[in-house]
Amino acid sequence: MSSSVSHGAHDEAHQKPLLGSMGVDSRKLGLWAFLGSETLFFVTLITTHLIFYARTKATLAAAGTLEHLDPRTHYLGIELTTVLASLLLASSLTMVLALAASKVKDWKKFRFWQMATILLGSAFVGGQVYEFNHLYHEGLKLAPQYVLEGETVKSLFGVTFFTMTGFHGLHVTIGIIWLIATYVKVAKFPDSPENPMDIELAGLYWHFVDLVWVAIFTLIYLI
Amino acid sequence: MAEHVAHDDHSEDHESHSTKFYWMIGGILAVVTALEVGIFLVESSFDATLFLVILLGLALIKGAGVIAFFMHLRGDAKIFQFVFLVPLLFAFTLCLGFLKLFSNHVGIAG
């Protein structure tokens, strides 16, 4: 940097976002593009599950056993899932409140809301582990068949279900690690001009995992 | 100094307004979720198509609320909207197309 640039100008330049050729912050653009690709990833998993569930239903209906062997009706209750959906929705709210606090440099509020987001996310993952464990003991496994009322049904329902929700749980876990990293970084360097953008990026990813659960909750558990 | 204080007051006002707004959006999304669950519980009193349309509509409202207000895509740079919404639209199309093509397909498994 030229020595003629004043210290004030240096600070100003340092606080500007990393603008790329598109005139927007490159990191944010990259994250949005990544999230765009993630929509394709999750929609593929959801679609695959829906197709194989439709196949299973058709097979059971043809055999006249749909009533008592329908895997969705038997395995997927909405009590726990509604709690999980509420936890993620609440965490989205706390995340955006953490971001709002960071923008006015209210680090006390930021720490509170960010920690709330981390705890709500952790509760979601805990709930999902409980659900998986419960389903496993009920006979739904990561295998090309499931066992219901002593009968073994050949179906990819379990495989596609655990792959889809498992990948979502993995994304939530990565999100929690990201949020913790941001929390620690802000606590260590409260004066860093990059804090609001770092928090915004972590927040974008976090809202996205909530968005995916909105789709899974409706398409897999409710409809 | 006075200018600095005035700026801080403005920031606090802005935060307070934003915070209130986010709580309102969160409340609306919670109500929509409650509606979804309520409709699911009284499913039998709905026509199957109507049930599907209502639940998909409510999910769309929730998703749009999260994207527009929590992710701040509404009012953000057009390029962000482009790189996210185009793949999203493509994903929707892909989902509908594959469901139509393969839901009744007899394959090697299923």
Structure notes:
The complex is a heterodimer of chains A (223) and B (110). With 223 residues, chain A is mainly alpha-helical. Chain A has a single domain (24-222), classed as Cytochrome c oxidase, subunit III, four-helix bundle (Four Helix Bundle (Hemerythrin (Met), subunit A), Up-down Bundle). Helix content of chain A is 78%, strand content 4%. Chain A has 8 helices and 2 strands; from the N terminus they run H-H-H-H-H-H-E-E-H-H. Chain A has helices spanning 7-15, 26-63, 66-69, 71-75, 79-103, 107-138, 157-188, 195-222; strands at 145-148, 151-154. Chain A has a two-stranded antiparallel ribbon with strand order 1-2. In chain A, strand 1 and strand 2 (151-154) form a beta hairpin. In chain A, helix 2 (26-63) packs antiparallel against helix 7, helix 6 packs antiparallel against helix 7 (157-188) and helix 7 runs antiparallel to helix 8. Chain A is elongated. Chain B has 110 residues and is mainly α. In chain B, helix 1 runs antiparallel to helix 2. Chain B is flat and about 45 Å long. Chain B starts with a helix and ends in an 8-residue tail after the last helix. The chains are: A mainly alpha (223), B mainly alpha (110). The interface between A and B is large, with 58 and 53 residues.
Domains of chain A, number: 1
Instruction: Assign the CATH class of chain A.
Output: Mainly Alpha
Q: Radius of gyration of chain A, Cα only, in angstroms?
A: 22 Å
**What is CATH's topology name of chain A?**
Four Helix Bundle (Hemerythrin (Met), subunit A)
Shape of chain A: elongated
Measure the end-to-end span of chain A. Answer: 60 Å
Oligomeric state of this protein: heterodimer
Computed CA radius of gyration of chain B, to the nearest angstrom = 21 Å
Largest sheet of chain A: 2 strands, antiparallel
Largest interface, by Cβ-Cβ below 8 angstroms: which chains and how many residues each? Answer: A-B, 58 and 53 residues
Q: How many beta strands in the DSSP annotation of chain B? A: 0
Instruction: Tell me the strand percentage band of chain B.
Output: under 5%
Share of helix of chain B, binned:
over 70%
Strand order of the largest sheet of chain A: 1-2
Order of helices and strands of chain B: HHH
Largest sheet of chain B: none
**Mean pLDDT of chain A, nearest integer?**
90
Report strand % of chain A. Answer: under 5%
Number of helices of chain B: 3
Helix/strand structural class of chain B? mainly alpha
How many helical elements of chain A?
8
